[in-house]
Amino acid sequence: MAKSANQKSKLLYLSKILLEQTDEDHPITVPEMIQELAKRDIKAERKSIYDDLETLSLFGLDVQSRKGRSPGWFIGSREFELPELKLLMDAVQSSRFITQKKSDALIRKLEGLASIHQARQLQRQVYVSGRIKVMNESIYYNVDRLHGALSAQKAITFKYFDYDISRQKVFRRDGKRYTVSPYGLIWDNENYYLVAFDHVNQEMRHYRVDKMADIVVTNLPRSGQEQYPNFQVASYGQKHFAMYSGKEMTVTLRGRQSMAGVVWDRFGQDIILVPDGESHFRVTLSLVMSPQFLGWLFALDGIELVAPQEAVDLYRQRLVSIQAAYQDVSL
């Protein structure tokens, strides 16, 4: 049999056909493989197909065959199993920091890791109603650039902005560039944050990655080691509720035993709860006294702030101001 110009690509196309069109529920027969190869101007005989299938199997592709009512050949296990792809799909679609355009592009790539039949299941799996997405398309590349700076331990410069009511960017500091030394990235409250040492203010701060623009990795070595010799990014993120700033304090909370899970869920399983009587516990934490922490505390029936007095006074002032704001509201 005369060989076609595409004959050298036969094995590659055969693996592509198997990966794209087959799975355990959708096998393909040898005559169907020959037909698919013919569409690509590749001639094949039954015997050569069997030899090729054996070669693909030896190479590491999980090529399996089945006899009976629905006979044929198919790909068994893959690099990512269907349940794993569903988890990844859900994470991409539900992640607020990834724009809708980039989510759609990533989902199409993930679908390519399954057969065309399995991909239909994934399309049904990932629908999330009314999901809020960020508007800044460049975040995908910002994260990659920041990882490069972290790996090289170099300082960066960038512009930082907010959105006005018309969804237009308004740059802070009149568009002047920030210079910081990156220490880590935190994914908190469905947003990506860069934790970095601010060169001007000489302190650790954090920045929303989707609000950073024109990031430039400099040749300046990372700063901040002298001021923060034992800095831990995870500890920084744990202290900041929803990544809001405030005064850092060591506070004591007293709660009912039934609220232990709530504290562990927020602060981690390593937090030590000390029994306080038969039905309560106390816990001492180092955290930032931000409005978000006080809001979290206010929403919990069964946990109270008991020390230090400065923190208790701040909480009391917050409650008084809220009460005053609603005193003159007519019902």
UniProtKB/TrEMBL annotation:
Residues 143-216 form the WYL domain. This is WYL domain-containing protein. It comes from Flintibacter hominis. Signal peptide: none annotated. Pfam families: WYL. InterPro entries: CBASS_pafABC_assoc_protein (IPR051534), WH_DNA-bd_sf (IPR036390), WYL_dom (IPR026881).
